[in-house]
Amino acid sequence: MAKEHKYVYTFGAGKAEGDASMRNLLGGKGANLAEMCNIGLPVPAGFTLSTDVCTYYYANDRTYPKELKKQVDAALEHVEKIMGAEFGSPKNPLLVSCRSGARESMPGMMDTVLNIGLNEKTLEALASQSQNERFAWDSYRRFVQMYGDVVLDMKPKDKRDADPFEKILEEVKHKAKVQYDSELSVDQLKDVVVQFKKMVKEHTGKDFPTEPMEQVWGAIGAVFGSWMNDRAVVYRRQYNIPHEWGTATNVQAMVFGNLGNDCATGVGLTRDGALGLPGFNGDYLVNAQGEDVVAGIRTPKRIEIELPKEMPEAFKQLDNIGKTLERHYKDVQDIEFTIQRGKVWMLQTRNAKRTGFAAVRIAVDLVNEGMITEQEALQKRRIPADDLNQLLQPIFDPKAKKASQAQGKLLAKGIAAGPGAATGQICFHASDAEALHEKDPKVDLILVRRETSPEDLRGMRIAKGILTAFGGASSHAALVSRQMGKVCIVGCGTLDIDYHKETLVVSGKTLKPGDWISIDGFSGEVYEGKVPTKPSEVVEVLLTKTKKPEESETFQRYAQLMTWVDKHRKLRVRTNADQPDQAATALSFGAEGIGLCRTEHMFFEHLDEIREMIVADTRESREKALAKLLPFQRDDFAGLFREMKGRPVTIRLLDPPLHEFLSEHHLQEQPDLAQKLAKSLGVSKETIARRVEELKEMNPMLGHRGCRLGIVYPEITAMQARAIFEAACLVKKEGVEVHPEVMIPLAGFLSEYKNQEAIVRAQADAVFKEKGTRIDYLVGTMIEVPRAAIVADQIAQAAEFFSFGTNDLTQTTLGMSRDDYGGFIGYYQEHDIIGSDPFQTIDKDGVGALMKIGVERGRKSRENLKIGICGEHGGDPATVYFCHEIGLDYVSCSPFRVAIARLAAAQAALAK
Ligand code: PEP
Ligand code: MG
């Protein structure tokens, strides 16, 4: 006969059937209770129903496997033996708790029931055993209330409604003229229980269950059922926890923190979770049960301040347990405990959740204390790479944010696109921002737009933050903000912006220019008014130089961590930068080159000349306009080369559709523009209008852009190539090494690539000849349409490097516009159609598969082909791991994400 499937695992008396490695099966709580037993810590005996039960339960119409009952009975017997008590006995009753515990902790999302096994008979025994009738009735009162709320589903459905049990309790307390339930007498507690039970009968039509086995199965069902409650589902979605995992359920002998004043219950951390300061800390309540601490009924006391005075012996036990746990788990622990008559019992331990600040401090401190290795310090579970951001950006003071929320000042939530915290006055137009800035360079502005376009660039630079109603994670607003290190929220669909009325209507409020708002680029939240911020010390040392390294411990730890990062990573990290100041920022965060310079961003400083080039309809007049642009481009490139001091600089040739520089929309917005252009070109206003009309496209993103521009207008490519090589020769002459890498955008055919390459190389030869010098350079291409990935072997015959442009590659592979997906991606995510935003994290199965093909085929033709990524995904840790796996040479990301990408690269390298 096949062996029976094991669903239940016991623990207690220094022995357990499970251990910490079994968290997938036993959940975090179950696995760690078992582990604590195994290492000899005081844990009340119990057993865990595995996550297999949960998966069975949901796959089989909320029923249990047939073997389960027998296994639970046997486990309960085991617990009875260890505890020397009997479940349901009227003489010597065992009481148990029933708690959820999933693989990843989901704090407060699922249910718990305490004091199971109480009825009026067992209660009497409990009263006489403890010689404390009040305690017995208090426990029973709690049990009926919790069971009613959780198992009988009497919890209020709307958060504005009061818990019906609390209402009764309040009335009794009011009548008794007491503040706390601990002050109620036995008779008053009895009265509470009578009223509770009456309400249960009214609500459910049945008497409150008195049979202990019925109670325990009711509680087990409620805990498994709570895996699918709304809160838990939403939480899992937010943290990418698969619904299929299921929860385990732990049934454990009760120990009591409410037996008297030598008893307590509490939660604590072995180090501080906000800043990582060493030392046990937490909250406890004397003469109370677990839920009181969390429920906030009485204000708890601080463990580190009061407990050593109030219960010195218990504090010593707790502190020792904390140290044992830290040494054993090699990490900060978050624990739950009960003190029963002076003895500490452990109810839970888990690796503590922490902020990015605390994560770095704790990891570095643990290495310095000799507890972990530097490789362990870099594990992504210790410092999620994204959390490093918190060290770099000003942040909102969390307390202030909570207060704003409580005051109803949270206005909206969008896609968090540029991390950080910004507070400023609303400004709807880039030109207004410029004017205001001119008057007062210190003005704090938030540029609020339906969307941004390249023309808003100057306004964006001035603004403290950018907020848009439309667009997604690789929209113009998002990528420019990240590059500039600006706080940014995009796709905030509930904003109703009226440029003409100059109003922003949101959440029933109408805001005007000059009104203050605060935007949180970590969470996507928009607040009304000013929420106070705190600056980043790391930025003060590295960038603004307003602090010296020795003045900032935070910086010192960051620096120590980053030396380990660089030792272990294989991927190189470059930056997307178009200007020397952006390059300088990136360098201070450790960038090793420029992976993408978008030359069109430079053009926006010279709109008159570029517009002249666009409206020119002969080659000669186009070349005349281009000749005006050449010196500007040369200066810009020279600036970048100087700043990068010999590191590789990838410069991409002109990419966007020309209408971004000149369209009907521009002519309408600037009534004198057509006349101005007509005059400088010596043509009529009508000619200008006609040319603009010709430029109009139905799908500009799939239209005349990328290398298609340089192919049809080779003089554009020639001018840009010339500017690059002239700048390179100039800077080389100044004694600075230069390594330009010229990149062709949007090529899908080898012939497209070759056409452009020929122009670039011809210009290089010509310039080198003129200047009497040579420069090492590469010519390569972006891989940003599916065809390019598929024919990568052909393209690599000529191209010396590839860079995956995953913004366009995602857009073209998914057939999903990078500018328009904001309208439905929220719905998609809420309904589990797509897990993560494909424009933020690479869609591994689709876009990722194409990248893999591109790498394999490209390197088949050219073994040493250098390959990188320069789409916005390059700064996303999950994407960085993927890029490491498929063997890229480097990732390139916005300056403020460079350190994060470095850490993610080290984590990827250490993952195995
Ligand atoms: C890309 O498509 O990924 C890319 C980097 O180019 P752009 O975002 O400028 O189109
Ligand atoms: Mg692109």
Name the descriptors:
about 900 residues; alpha/beta; eight-stranded mixed β-sheet; eight-stranded parallel barrel; about 45% helix; binds phosphoenolpyruvate; binds magnesium ion
Report what the structure shows.
The chain has an eight-stranded mixed sheet with strand order 15-25-24-17-18-19-20-16. The model has no long low-confidence stretch (mean pLDDT about 90). It is about 45% helix and about 20% strand. Helix 37 crosses helix 38 (about 900-910). The protein has about 900 residues and is of the alpha/beta class. The site of magnesium ion (MG) has 4 residues, from helix 34.
Describe what is shown at a glance.
The chain is α/β, with parallel strands linked by helices and 912 residues long. The protein has 38 helices and 34 strands.
Layout of strands and helices, then pairs:
Elements: E1 8-12, E2 15-16, H1 23-38, E3 46-49, H2 51-59, H3 68-83, E4 86-87, E5 93-94, E6 96-102, E7 112-116, H4 120-130, H5 133-150, H6 164-176, H7 186-204, H8 212-226, H9 230-238, E8 247-253, E9 264-271, E10 278-286, H10 290-295, E11 301-302, H11 303-310, H12 312-329, E12 333-340, E13 343-351, H13 356-368, H14 374-377, H15 389-392, E14 395-396, H16 398-406, E15 410-413, E16 415-418, E17 421-427, H17 430-439, E18 445-449, H18 457-462, E19 465-468, H19 476-484, E20 487-490, E21 496-498, E22 503-506, E23 509-511, E24 516-520, E25 525-528, E26 533-534, H20 537-542, H21 553-568, E27 572-576, H22 580-588, E28 594-598, H23 599-603, H24 607-615, H25 619-644, E29 648-652, H26 664-669, H27 673-681, H28 685-695, H29 707-712, H30 714-733, E30 739-744, H31 750-771, E31 778-783, H32 786-790, H33 792-795, E32 801-804, H34 806-814, H35 822-830, H36 844-861, E33 866-869, H37 877-885, E34 890-893, H38 898-910
Parallel strand pairs: 4-5, 17-18, 18-19, 19-20, 27-28, 27-34, 28-29, 29-30, 30-31, 31-32, 32-33, 33-34
Antiparallel strand pairs: 1-2, 1-3, 3-8, 6-7, 6-8, 9-10, 9-12, 10-11, 12-13, 14-26, 15-25, 16-20, 17-24, 21-22, 22-23, 24-25
The chain binds phosphoenolpyruvate and magnesium ion.
